[in-house]
From TrEMBL:
This is Molybdate ABC transporter substrate-binding protein. It holds the Pfam family SBP_bac_11. Residues 1-25 form the signal peptide. GO terms for biological process: molybdate ion transport. Molybdate binds at S46, S74, V174, Y192. The keyword NADP does not apply. It comes from Cellulomonas triticagri. GO terms for molecular function: metal ion binding; molybdate ion binding.
């Protein structure tokens, strides 16, 4: 039996506490009436590139606000909210993980959709061409942990294809699974299309056929105990705007 590895969850709660201590008081308005202070956004790891681009846009539009992101697996972020993390916005990679926080979040809005792809090292040493190849015991495979959205989406894809994989490692989030392929530590991983695009020429992506194509929705919500609700609402508005939709589309997401 292969040894399964699980990486330790990010200490998001501690990091956010440190970040909050170094910021000026949130919630006030700047000279032009806009939000000021610190804004903390908890976001699924696969949103990193798109949200980092939106950070610059947001801070240009609201120079009195400093944005801090905490990227991790969606289930980890939901647990941090339940534990009382001092955050303003939550963006997850599935509606079930958003539902975990219950009434600690305002009504969420789906802003994007993502699909799974097989990712392999550039030289594709195992010669992988399809999902069926991942059932070969000789293929080293990285999957996201079952409790995070990319892991659940992978399980759906394998079930649709009638395939039982034997993964060598379960990773804490999609970024960690992608890294395994980038470094050539595995023959393949299942990650999101957006992560394949973000990795550029360091990997090769293999799309799944339509009959087993697995996707997931991305809801975003202002947290009900947000320290800076004005900035939180402004950030969610940016994500939902035409500019936000363009950034998400360019990153490889589908938008409603």
């Amino acid at each position: 039996m292969r040894v399964l590895s699980r990486l330790v969850a990010l200490p998001v709660l501690v990091a956010l506490g440190v970040a909050a201590c170094g910021s000026h008081a949130p919630g006030a308005d700047d000279a032009e009436g806009g939000p000021t202070g610190a804004l903390t956004v908890l976001a699924a790891a696969s949103l990193r590139d798109a949200f980092e681009r939106l950070r610059g846009v947001f801070e240009d539009e609201h120079p009195g606000v400093t944005v801090t992101f905490a990227f991790a697996g969606s289930s980890t972020l939901a647990q941090q909210v339940l534990a009382g993390a001092p955050a303003d916005v939550l963006a997850t990679a599935s509606t079930p993980t958003m539902a975990l926080v219950g009434d600690l979040a305002d009504e969420p809005v789906v802003v994007a959709r993502n699909t799974l792809e097989i990712v392999v090292p550039v030289d594709n040493p195992a010669g992988i061409t399809s999902l069926a190849d991942l059932a070969d015991p000789g293929v080293t495979l990285a999957l996201c942990a079952p409790e995070v959205p990319c892991g659940a989406a992978a399980a759906d894809a394998f079930a649709a294809a009638g395939i039982t994989p034997t993964p060598d490692t379960y990773e804490k989030d999609v970024t960690a699974a992608l890294t395994r392929a980038v470094l050539g530590e595995v023959d393949a991983a299942l990650v999101y299309r957006t992560d394949v695009l973000a990795a550029g020429e360091s990997v090769r992506g293999i799309p799944l056929p339509d009959d087993v194509r697995s996707s997931t929705d991305y809801p975003v919500a202002v947290l009900t105990e947000a320290p800076n609700p004005d900035a939180a609402r402004a950030f969610v508005a940016l994500v939902r705007s035409a500019q936000g939709r363009q950034v998400l589309t360019e990153a490889g997401f589908e938008v409603p």
